[in-house]
Design goal:
Blueprint lengths: L1 H8 L3 H19 L8 E2 L4 H4 L5 E7 L4 H10 L2 H4 L5 E7 L5 H6 L7 E6 L2 E5 L7 H9 L8 E2 L6 H14 L1
Parallel strand pairs: 1-3, 2-3
Antiparallel strand pairs: 2-4, 4-5, 5-6
Length: 171
């Protein structure tokens, strides 16, 4: 007890306050329900649903990420807020997809939100501002100010086999 007490004495008030805030955040995180999207996409079904003639706003997440859980609480309100639009909503658990899928969709960090429209991809790239109002504005007009990226594609079986072949001979 004395050792712990002495260690605390060496810390500044700001450091102690930060530690207390982190403990509270961890406890709050434990109370947040898990992410359960109404419609889950993965690499097996993604291209069956997300086609050039459909509009999707997709939440890429890690179910263990506290920022994803926080964003999810707000994101799940969005379909109701823009129900007059013909936009479908889904989620992709990035833990459950391959590295090729994550690389193709540039989801090295989460949470990420991508709008798919007419075969193009628009990334909602505002880290701190994940609110229904801002997403709604993005889906109505904000995406028009971005440079669209083409729909990514995954490597074919032949490309994957060739990659393994090259790796085998490198070793």
């Amino acid at each position: 007890t004395i050792l712990v007490h002495c260690q605390k004495a060496n810390k500044t008030e700001a450091e102690l306050a930060e530690e207390a805030r982190e403990r509270v955040e961890i406890e709050e995180f434990k109370k947040v329900p898990p992410i359960v999207v109404d419609f889950a996409l993965n690499e097996t079904n993604f291209f069956d649903y997300v086609t050039s003639d459909s509009e999707w706003f997709i939440f890429f997440y890690n179910p263990r990420c506290r920022y994803c859980k926080k964003a999810f609480r707000e994101w799940q309100k969005l379909p109701q807020a823009i129900k007059d639009k013909n936009i479908k909503f889904a989620g992709v658990d990035v833990v459950e997809v391959t590295e090729d899928f994550r690389r193709a969709f540039k989801t090295n960090w989460v949470p990420q939100f991508k709008y798919f429209k007419k075969g193009k991809v628009y990334t909602y790239d505002v880290d701190a501002n994940r609110t229904v109002e801002l997403w709604k504005e993005f889906l109505e007009i904000g995406y028009k100010n971005l440079t669209a990226e083409p729909m990514p594609r995954l490597p074919t079986q032949l490309e994957l086999a060739f990659r393994e072949f090259k790796a085998f001979f490198r070793e």
